[in-house]
Amino acid sequence: MPDERLLATCWTTAGAASPLPGDQRSPVPIRKRVAAASAAGFQGIGLLHADLMPALDQYGSGGLRALLDDHGIVDLELELITGWWSAESEPVRRDLLAAAEALGARHIKVGPDVSDGPWEHDRWVAAFAALAAEAAEAGTRVGLEFLPWSNIKTVHDGLALVRAAGHPAGGLIIDVWHTERAHTPPADLAAVPVEYIVGVELNDADAEPVGTLFEDTVHRRRLCGEGTFDLAGVVAALRDTGWRGPWGVEILSDEHRRAPLRRAVADAFRTARALVG
């Protein structure tokens, strides 16, 4: 296999920050996060909107891109656009699309409706196609991350939506935590056409969730190889599609957030690299 790049998703380098409700900003300066990712061996990094905008205020797009380049960061992931099927997404949507164009971001993550309320399929298809078209104009792609507690629960649900939208700049983020908790076998992932895969995220967990799925995913993810997921099967299945990375590494846990940043990020890289080779 070629030397496939790894990408530290936003929470992997965020220190004592999480996607829990409230202030999600990382307390770690952006320079330290980029340096930690680079020192560990990552060639990609993810940034949340709440951290991206202060970084742009501090460095400007040129300065931030230079910071990434100086540390060998090739792949930039931005997140997260929610509510993209309605007008509520407009401020974050506008910021992330503009930043993606200025910084040369590889892709932008978008989320489903975590309230799992009623939704209109045709309206969502049209809205996703429109968002993908905007992403293409900005020189990037959008990846829909399906979540097992949302209205887009499985890779099958997500694939149906992006296929119906039919825009090459739109696809899926496949997070192994979500596929495993949705009991999706690796063979189903192998059947996803690679053109619909925008990003992949690796992590691990215990056999049974503790609390709600959201609580478990935020507090108890494990490093690759330290849980029960069939990670080797997932990686082999995704390689069968033609996927060659970058492989995102998304570690979310109380333990990870408490650890010194450089050690936590290095452990995330080391265990994922052992998995993908």
Q: Could you write a compact summary of the structure shown?
A:
The protein is an alpha/beta fold. It is built from 11 helices and 8 strands.
Helix-strand sequence? EHEHEHEHEHEHHEHHEHH
* Strand-residue proportion: 5-15%
Terminal CA distance reads 8 Å
The largest sheet is:
8 strands, parallel, barrel
Strand order of the largest sheet: 1-2-3-4-5-6-7-8
Number of strands: 8
Main structural class: alpha/beta
Describe the structure in your own words:
An eight-stranded parallel beta barrel has the order 1-2-3-4-5-6-7-8, surrounded by six helices. β2, α2 (49-70) and β3 (75-81) form a beta-alpha-beta unit. The radius of gyration is 17 Å and the shape is globular. 45% of the residues lie in helices and 14% in strands. The longest helix is centred in the N-terminal third of the chain and has 22 residues, at 49-70. With 277 residues, the chain is an alpha/beta fold. The chain contains eleven helices and eight strands. The model has no long low-confidence stretch (mean pLDDT 96). The protein has helices at residues 30-40, 49-70, 90-103, 121-137, 155-165, 176-181, 186-190, 213-219, 231-241, 254-258, 261-276, and strands at residues 6-8, 44-48, 75-81, 107-110, 141-145, 170-175, 197-202, 247-249. α1 runs parallel beside α11 (261-276), α2 (49-70) packs parallel to α3 (90-103) and α4 crosses α5 (155-165). The chain starts with 5 loop residues before the first strand and ends with a helix.
